[in-house]
Amino acid sequence: MITPISSPKNPLIKEIALMQSKAKERKRAGMIVIEGKKEISLAVSAGLSFVKILYCPQIIALEEARTLIGAAWERAEIFEVSEAAFSKISYRETTGGVVVLATEPSKQLADLPVNEQSVYIILEAVEKPGNLGAICRVADAAKVDGLIISDPHTDIYNPNAIRSSLGCVFTVDVVQASFEDTYAWLKRNAVRSFAAELQASEFYHETDLSGRIALVFGTEATGLTEKWITGADRRIKIPMGGVIDSLNVTTSVAILTFEAMRRRNFGNND
């Protein structure tokens, strides 16, 4: 059954618009909002549970929307939404005509794979959804074993994080955990931690990055807190040949992560 919605003042449209902007509303509902064909297709591949699907027939045909969603279409409530109503829940014109409400994924540290050459990214107190999304893309491209958000200051599934990740927030094992739980997990699994820190004396390219490792990054504004600087096994930095002393966090994550993967031959054992 497909339920039509024509008014922008429809209660469901109002609820989704509120969830788009308020993390507490998403948490209350236990759901996340996903828009964009690429983002939705990756959520489908990741096996997320879709609860409500809203499509605008003026933007996307019914059969195209059904094909995009696949088998999840049959398990969700479907709504046909007018352009006026859809504009209230769509962030951008390139959304593709579909918005999905899905059950929020829940992953724990114990769910992360651990092997002899595992590489993890740890972000402490990440604040900007755009940075988180961009780093999810790095994590996906490098195919790391997990992205751990330590003491987060933003919602992992903030719509801006989903958009900026192009859906890679669903292709990477992303976990939220406290410093204490993360630190205990690292020690329990014999994962060496490397804090990216401006005052470090050791350059990353001169460091042994073999075995199980976690690369730890702080915020662009304040860097890592003292507990991570002193708690990490090693402190490393990127050589800076110009007048500035640091790079933005996404660039730093990309440089160190791809160096670690290069030394593992990018997962190829040939």
Secondary-structure element string: EHHEHEHEHEEHEHEHEEEHEH
- The end-to-end span amounts to 52 Å
Large-scale geometry: elongated
User: What is the average per-residue confidence, as pLDDT, rounded to a whole number?
Assistant: 94
CATH hierarchy: architecture of the largest domain: 3-Layer(aba) Sandwich
Would you tell me the structural class of the helices and strands?
Answer: alpha/beta
The CATH superfamily title of the largest domain: SPOUT methyltransferase, trefoil knot domain
Topology:
Blueprint: E1 2-5, H1 11-21, H2 23-29, E2 31-35, H3 37-45, E3 50-55, H4 62-69, E4 77-81, H5 83-86, E5 98-103, E6 119-124, H6 129-142, E7 146-150, H7 159-165, E8 174-177, H8 179-188, E9 192-196, E10 202-203, E11 213-217, H9 226-231, E12 234-237, H10 249-263
Parallel strand pairs: 1-4, 3-4, 6-7, 6-11, 7-8, 9-11, 9-12, 10-12
Antiparallel strand pairs: 2-5, 3-5
Helix pairs in contact: 1-2, 6-7, 6-10
Could you please describe the fold and organization of this structure?
40% of the residues are buried. 34% of the residues lie in helices and 21% in strands. It folds into two domains: 2-103, Ribosomal protein L30/S12 (60s Ribosomal Protein L30, Chain: A), CATH 3.30.1330.30; 109-267, Alpha/beta knot. The strands form two sheets. The protein has a seven-stranded parallel sheet with strand order 8-7-6-11-9-12-10, with helices on both faces. It has a five-stranded mixed sheet with strand order 1-4-3-5-2, sandwiched between helices. The mean pLDDT is 94. The longest helix is centred in the last third of the chain and has 15 residues, at 249-263. Strand 3 (50-55), helix 4 (62-69) and strand 4 (77-81) form a beta-alpha-beta unit. With 270 residues, the chain is of the alpha/beta class.
